[in-house]
Design goal:
Enzyme class: transferase
Number of helices: 11
Family: Belongs to the mannose-6-phosphate isomerase type 2 family.
Protein name: mannose-1-phosphate guanylyltransferase
Structural class: alpha/beta
Number of strands: 30
Pfam families: ManC_GMP_beta-helix, MannoseP_isomer, NTP_transferase
CATH superfamily of the largest domain: Spore Coat Polysaccharide Biosynthesis Protein SpsA, Chain A
Strand content: 25-35%
Radius of gyration: 24 Å
Helix content: 10-25%
Pathway: Nucleotide-sugar biosynthesis; GDP-alpha-D-mannose biosynthesis; GDP-alpha-D-mannose from alpha-D-mannose 1-phosphate (GTP route): step 1/1
Length: 472
């Protein structure tokens, strides 16, 4: 691997329906700490450390941009671009845009394509497989990674491996869509089938060459989207109209299943795409009764359950094969063998315009975040956190007044035509109609308790007076 540098492309889109209520459409599973203290996105970047990698490129939905930026900042991770899709168009257009931009950064880099929402319990197996794939990709092959099929999964695609090209590198005989249980059981018994992980390694030029043969319309639309891109703070916005016009296809369907230039490297890394609560139970450490416990939980006479308490004590008595997930604003109780139906609950919430499917009570902004504490008739209480050196926009509310109390740090406040500092335990009052903002001039996080009072308290009662495009 001497002098070889990989450019990781991390796809961090996703709708957040299968792991509800922890996962929401504005805060899907890739941003959650499902396996430890770090989020899945942070873990994905961390496992690149043993490999010769450049700073990663992140592809994400526009509405997730501040979450991505904040999670990278938390771990001091550099990046070579946070690329915003104006609308989801599956993996082929996302990877195409990344390949075109990568050719502007390097002469012809090797792209390591990863999903931000996959769990890998054996990172050494991941490193080993990628290392074995590098010389094959340098020769111009499109390399996919097939994971050891340990159970007959019907929710995964499979790769049928062909003849050996070199040690532990094989031709791809074919790709198989999600099989029925009987077929999946046959695949597990065979040594010729691997799970399709959705991870790839190839030269940017090699991928674009194959794409032009099999799906030139995707390439044409993505070239236009790159030409019309714009910069917004730390983000790269792809051209809206051409990207929306791009066909929505997976990279497997658009290129990999059609190309004759594909190789597969087996990966024994204890991989999972964590596609359900059952899958999360499968890969987590269990107690003597087979329970997976997270948070403040008392399981009594219960077996083989997944119980996750985010904010309160949760007791489960006499239950078997149960999923229990508690959050501030929603609780899920489900049979472990029926968890695929969780997405139907999310669909019903969407149809009812319920906020519980959209976002958590903590909402991220470019300057920090705000988290709902309580609300009632004519009042809302929130905890607001402002990062050092950051400032909110100057804004006006026409239906509510606000009371601010500084809990931690120092705030520089604009209140109408007055500017002043507030220290810990000091407070101020913002009347209806008064232009206002607050800034953190210090070196530690600023925390404020905000109490809204008035006849209308929703976030759309706002006029921003100095906000650049894309700023909230």
């Amino acid at each position: 691997m001497d002098n070889v540098e990989l450019l990781p492309v991390i796809m961090a889109g996703g709708s957040g329906s299968r792991l509800w209520p922890l996962s929401r459409s504005l805060y899907p599973k890739q941003f959650l700490p499902l396996m430890g203290k770090d989020s899945m996105l942070q873990e994905t970047i961390a496992r690149l450390a043993p490999l010769p990698c450049l700073s990663p490129m992140i592809i994400c939905n526009e509405e997730h941009r501040f979450v991505v930026a904040e999670q990278l900042r938390q771990r001091h991770y550099d990046h070579c671009g946070i690329v915003l899709e104006p609308v989801g168009r599956n993996t082929a257009p996302a990877i195409t845009a990344a390949a075109l931009m990568a050719l502007e950064l390097q002469s012809d880099p090797l792209l390591l394509i990863l999903a931000a929402d996959h769990a890998i319990l054996n990172p050494g197996g991941f490193t080993d497989a990628v290392s074995r794939a590098i010389p094959v990709a340098e020769e111009g092959k499109l390399v996919t990674f097939g994971c050891t099929a340990s159970t007959p999964e019907t929710g995964y695609g499979y790769i049928n491996i062909g003849k050996a090209l070199s040690e532990e590198v094989f031709q791809v005989k074919g790709f198989v869509e999600k099989p029925d249980l009987e077929t999946a059981e046959q695949y597990v018994k065979s040594e010729e089938y691997l799970w399709n992980s959705g991870m790839f390694l190839f030269k940017a030029s090699a991928f674009l060459h194959e794409l032009e043969k099999y799906h030139p319309d995707i390439l044409a639309h993505c070239k236009e989207a790159i030409e019309e891109r714009s910069l917004d703070l730390d983000f790269v916005r792809l051209g809206d109209a051409p990207f929306r016009a791009c066909p929505s296809d997976s990279v497997d369907y658009a290129v990999m299943e059609k190309s004759q230039n594909v190789a597969v490297v087996p990966m024994d890394a204890s991989w999972s795409d964590i596609g359900s609560w059952q899958a999360l139970w499968d890969i987590n450490r269990k107690d003597d009764n087979g329970n997976v416990i997270a948070g403040d939980v008392f399981p009594q006479s219960s077996r083989n359950c997944y119980i996750n308490a985010q904010h309160r004590l949760v007791s489960v008595v006499g239950a078997d094969d149960l999923i229990v997930v508690e959050t501030k604003d929603a609780i899920l109780v489900a049979n472990k063998h029926k968890v695929q139906e969780v997405r139907h609950v999310v669909t019903q919430l969407q149809q009812s315009a319920r906020n519980e499917c959209l976002q958590h009570q903590e909402v991220f902004r470019p300057w920090g975040s705000h988290d709902a504490i309580t609300e009632g008739h004519r009042y809302h209480v929130k905890k607001v956190r402002v990062k050092p050196g950051e400032k909110t926009t100057t804004q006006v509310h026409y239906n509510r007044a606000e009371h601010w109390v500084v809990v931690t740090g120092t705030a520089r406040v604009q209140n109408g035509d007055k500017n002043y500092l507030l220290s810990e335990n000091e407070s101020t009052y913002i009347p209806i109609g008064s232009p206002h903002s607050f800034e953190n001039p210090g070196k530690v996080m600023l925390e404020i308790i905000e109490v809204r009072t008035g006849s209308y308290l929703d976030d759309d009662d706002i006029e921003r007076l100095d906000a650049p495009d894309g700023y909230l």
